[in-house]
Amino acid sequence: MTALLQIHDLTVQVANKSLLSNINLELNQGDYLCVLGPNGAGKSTLLKTVMGIIKPATGTITVNQHSLSQLNQKQWSCMVSYVPQTHGQKLNFLVKEFIQMGRYPYHTTFSNWLPEDQQALERAIEITQTDIFLDRHMQTLSGGEAQRVMIAAALCQKTPLLLLDEPTSFLDPHHQVEVHQLIQQLNRQHDISIIEVSHDLNHASQHSKQILALKYGKTLWHGPSSDLLQESHLRDLYDQDFVFTTHPQTGAVIALPSEQL
Amino acid sequence: MKAANTLLIIFIVTIIIVLLSPNLGLINTANPEIQHHILTQLRIPRVLFAFLAGSGLAICGMVFQAMFHNPLATPFTLGVASGASLGAAFYVYLGFSFSFLGIDGTTFAAFTGALIAISFVYGISRFRSGFSLETLLLTGVAISFFFSSLILFIQYLSNVSDSFRILRWLMGGLSIVGYRDIFQLLPFVSVCIAVILWLSRELNLLMAGDDIALSRGVAVQPIRYLLFFVTSLCVGAIVALCGPIGFIGMMVPHICRLLIGSDHRWLIPATILFGGGFLILCDTIARLIIAPAEIPVGVITTLLGGPFFLWLLIKFKAS
């Protein structure tokens, strides 16, 4: 089986400053990759480059054997969707309008709304359980609700690959759990491949399948999530000592930053 | 449908303004022929012209506000109108006179000025990596000042009659005679409106931010350049014919957003109608307030626009 996403020797530069260098990555259908790393490591840059928002200096990105450089943005958006690190409540739209706009890449100015569009819309709304506030204004939503709407809009694009940039960073613990569960569900039940940028080590080690650890724009470590929580890995990545314990309910290993300097 | 009803109301009010305006302040002469002449050769063309100019300015303002996600960003605040004014003033100063396909040379000069201004402002705001709205607005202000002093310089160099012509035109006015100027303006405003209608879905997504627009598949950069081009064309044509009439592009789309929401499929027709009707209204006031003399309509719109600008500024600081 060939990989869903292939990134080969990717380098990204902005104003002669190298943000990512020599990244290689393969992702299969159904994979769930978490990208970890200190601030400024190039995590968001990687997602934006895969989405086609930032143009790479060198290297290739292919999805389903189609190369990013050969497709236009609309064609690319039928294969990759993206939830940016934006507060959805700042957007001035009705929830339904915004989710519907996820069908943009399948349409031209004069094309009609087809049954398959309606199907994709209803599926996105059902999965994210956004039906209760469809007619509300996005500015009236809570953080958790707004994030579900952002994910619903990306789901409406019906892409095999979904990119999420710190989807829970500004949510309270309850809504963090809710959004994490939704992402799990997308991956397991709906077979959507996911790349998520995160700062939550424990979430990444327990829920994702693979980890890509970035530092200074380079791959520091890439492997199965079960191998993440090791002292040497984490110290190298964050220049910080960690201690380990187990979750009283699940028995899973948990890493905590060490208090000793 | 709430939006449809609102649009209908805006449509009806606009029609009333269009029908009423030419008949206001008609001098009671015994001669019905003169009366008729004033109505058909002065008033009706003036109302039609004001409608075209008003909708053109409003729709260009709407596009800029959507593209830069800020109600303060308009062709006027970003220096596009000053660029157009400088182009036109330069043309008057050089004493050129040419036309192409029936379009007067002033229009081309103003269009060139507008395009130079927007390229400059946009180029500078992108010069350093990362795009900041503050940089953009401040660059617009700087360009406006710079171009205004160049216009003053040209005026200083010009002879008295040219200088007065430039000054009077800079105040913005719609005192036209006959239908010729309408046909000068019509193609530019229509092309601009057609392109904007065609791009209404893209405008919706641009309003959500460049990253979201790109991730939905909008080719942001080419669309932005196309919009810069058609709005420069439209603003250039309007400025060349009636001077820089300020603030329409800021007030009208913002009020329309409050009335009808942000969906461009509704917002575009509402802005076209409201902009047209609003400029006719301002022009009627300008014509009647010290009748039989009249003041330039630009004075009225700017008097209304200044406080509106401050209100927006305070409102956005508060939120």
Describe it.
The complex is a heterodimer of chains A (261) and B (319). In chain A, helix 4 (115-128) runs antiparallel to helix 5 (143-155) and helix 5 packs parallel to helix 6. In chain A, strands 6-7-8-3-9-10 form a 6-stranded mixed sheet, with helices on both faces. The radius of gyration of chain A is 19 Å and the shape is globular. In chain A, 30% of the residues lie in helices and 27% in strands. By secondary structure, chain A is an alpha/beta fold. Chain A has one domain: P-loop containing nucleotide triphosphate hydrolases (Rossmann fold, 3-Layer(aba) Sandwich), CATH 3.40.50. By secondary structure, chain B is an all-alpha fold. Chain B has one domain: ABC transporter involved in vitamin B12 uptake, BtuC (Orthogonal Bundle), CATH 1.10.3470. In chain B, 77% of the residues lie in helices and 1% in strands. A two-stranded antiparallel ribbon of chain B has the order 1-2. The longest helix of chain B is centred in the N-terminal third of the chain and has 37 residues, at 32-68. The mean pLDDT of chain B is 83. Classes of the chains: A alpha/beta (261), B mainly alpha (319). Chain A binds chain B through residues 14-15, 48, 51-53, 72-78, 80-82, 84, 86, 91-94, 97-98, 101-102, 104-105, 107, 109, 154, 157, and chain B through 129, 198-201, 204-205, 207-212, 214-220, 257, 261-263.
SSE layout and pairing:
The complex is a heterodimer of chains A (261) and B (319).
Chain A: E1 5-14, E2 17-27, E3 32-36, H1 43-51, E4 58-63, E5 66-67, H2 73-76, E6 80-83, H3 95-100, H4 115-128, H5 143-155, E7 161-165, H6 173-188, E8 193-197, H7 201-207, E9 210-215, E10 218-224, H8 231-238, E11 242-246, E12 253-257
Parallel strand pairs in A: 3-8, 3-9, 6-7, 7-8
Antiparallel strand pairs in A: 1-2, 1-4, 4-5, 9-10, 11-12
Helix pairs in contact in A: 4-5, 5-6
Chain B: H1 2-20, H2 32-68, H3 80-94, E1 99-100, E2 103-104, H4 105-127, H5 133-157, H6 160-170, H7 180-198, H8 200-207, H9 210-215, H10 220-242, H11 248-260, H12 264-288, H13 297-318
Antiparallel strand pairs in B: 1-2
